[in-house]
């Protein structure tokens, strides 16, 4: 499928919206949310190696994109990446039962409680186009005391993000699915409200009309 420059410009608008552009500060724990993208694990390990936090927590069982693709859970796969990059095993925590972002949050809270690790500030690591949705979900679903949340992702621009595992068409479709969820999930109680600028929603509607609908859900 050939993608026009106009389509890429519309998609770039949505990609930029999904980024929350937080300035990172030292934290109590780096929490990496599971996915199919090992670059997310690498970003989390890099931050630990740069002394941003004493603990590195990987959360994720087998989700929609990894079930049937991997034998290991997302958390276990990510932890292996971190160990290979030099993070000591004793500084890594894994939560391997969750299948979605909300479960990532709730089950990670249980794990930290069990380990008696108090967290006043988190650095959350996700895919670039899931930064805002991760923030909104965490703000709503975190069951403990109010915690400061900083969100980051692999430092890769939109044009260079697709690789052998995910095509540009798939990236655009996933981004639209995440934007749709940002719009409808607050009413369902899953996420906090996030304002969506009119030009971003206009780009969404144009891309949906072009057929990038494979990751949309029935409202």
TrEMBL record:
It holds the Pfam family DUF218. Residues 28-146 form the DUF218 domain. CDD domains: YdcF-like. One of its GO terms (cellular component) is plasma membrane. InterPro entries: Cell_Envelope_Assoc, DUF218, Rossmann-like_a/b/a_fold. This is YdcF family protein.
